[in-house]
Amino acid sequence: MLRPGGAAFLDRDGTINVKAPEGAYVERPEDLVLLPGAAQAIRSLNDAAIPVVVVTNQRGIALGRMDEVDLAAIHVRLVDLLDREAGAAVDDILHCPHDRGPCGCRKPAPGLLLAAAQRHPHIELGRSVVIGDRPSDVEAGAAAGVPGLLLGRDAEDLAHAVQHLLAPVSAI
Q1: Per-residue pLDDT tens digits for 114-153
Q2: Would you place residue 171 in the very low, low, confident or very high pLDDT band (cuts 50, 70, 90)?
Q3: Fewest CB within 10 angstroms: 4, 74, 131, 161, which?
Q4: How many domains does the chain have?
């Protein structure tokens, strides 16, 4: 599924970090807690020279629960935790700040993936994969021509998804 020239597009909440309870949001840096194995999974992608791009809906901004400065601080913590836990890094983080409704970037729309491909012309969408915990994550991938893995259906968690993606073809 993942081929040279491709990237790993990862959802954030529920894929990399613990998702807030229904109706709540990760609103402050201290609210962000990595899921077990997530940092090492991203490190494995780094070691395989696969670009890692986080694509995340952040409706809390539209609802006034946080602002862009708050989100930037949360992402600084994410980057710091990934580095401290496993020496892992992400190449970019893109977010949709909009509420539900028509917008081109809120997953399941493909806008975040298309924007990432524009910002990183070396990424070929058709050689990439999107990994997330909600159907809207893989639907966004499909709309952009990117195959997807749905956690809980196609893989138990991010670590297992990455392990599957990096397994030699003969082992699949």
Answers
A1: 999 999 999 999 999 999 999 999 999 999 999 999 999 9
A2: very low
A3: 4
A4: 1
Residue 3 lies in a domain: no
Beta partners for residue 149, in sequence order: 131
Name the β-bridge partners of 96.
Answer: 57
The CB density around residue 9, as the number of other CB atoms within 10 Å, is 29
For residues 88 and 42, the answer to whether their CB atoms sit within 8 Å is: yes
Asked whether residue 70 is marked as a ligand-binding residue, the answer is no
Specify the CATH number for the domain of residue 45: 3.40.50.1000
Has 137 been annotated as catalytic? no
Catalytic-labelled residue, pool 11, 70, 137, 157: 11
Q: Quick one: pLDDT at residue 147?
A: 96
Q: Has 83 been annotated as catalytic? A: no
